[in-house]
Design a protein that fits this description.
8 helices; 222 residues; globular; 39% helix
Length: 222
């Protein structure tokens, strides 16, 4: 595992440098869903610090195991509103906010525990029925409605594009998310930050980095 992680980090560095970016601006999220506690421990020992989980119950067990460690946990799966109270207690960043209903519930639960929850807005750039995410044309309205939710902090955008064997076919979807981020920045919506772009996985993270990804989610390559 250590060699795999080293190899991925080298590829991230190379991709960033090749497009004039600093490698420090791209963070690696190890997708640890379905992985054992021992696997997470090995990855942490190899230098990884951010782990991405899809399921509340599974994540809770791991997070409790590593409660004394300086690991950061991100929620990257579809989140139902009735699980919001657990998510705000467990995760530093929730990548998958795609409705005002979910945002409102996260805000409510975060307020209860005195937390300002960092979130990303998930955009369904490929408009696939099988995937969660808000339509690109609706993101601006959602961002404006979230302004009043004082216990949420929008940090940026996230997408899971359609799958292609050729990374270059995914590039337009990453470019769309970056352009959407830029338009949101221009609007200067109060309390809405657009610092993060969570996009790119094992098969296409280099293309995502070229289009501005700040968080890449890597699972199978680790």
């Amino acid at each position: 595992m250590e060699n795999k992680i080293k190899n991925i980090k080298e590829h991230i560095k190379k991709a960033a440098v090749s497009c004039g970016r600093s490698p420090d601006d791209v963070r690696l999220i190890a997708v640890s869903k379905t992985q054992s506690v021992d696997a997470v421990r090995q990855a942490a020992d190899a230098g990884l610090t951010i782990f991405g989980e899809n399921y509340i119950q599974e994540a809770r067990n791991k997070i409790e195991t590593f409660s004394s460690s300086n690991l950061s946990w991100h929620f990257i799966g579809h989140l139902q509103s009735n699980k919001a109270k657990y998510a705000v207690k467990l995760f530093e960043l929730i990548h998958t906010v795609d409705s005002l209903k979910l945002a409102t519930e996260l805000n409510k639960q975060a307020e209860k525990i005195g937390k300002v929850q960092s979130v990303l807005l998930q955009v369904n750039t490929g408009m696939e029925a099988s995937k969660s995410g808000i339509a690109a044309e609706d993101v601006m309205d959602l961002a404006r409605h979230i302004i009043g939710l004082k216990n949420l902090k929008v940090k940026g955008l996230m997408t899971i594009p359609p799958f292609f064997n050729a990374p270059e076919k995914v590039t337009p979807f990453f470019k769309e998310l970056r352009n959407l981020r830029d338009r949101l920045r221009e609007e200067k919506i109060p309390d809405i930050q657009m610092d993060e772009l969570s996009m790119g996985m094992t098969g296409d993270f280099e293309a995502a980095i070229e289009e501005g990804a700040t968080l890449v989610r890597i699972g199978t390559a680790i």
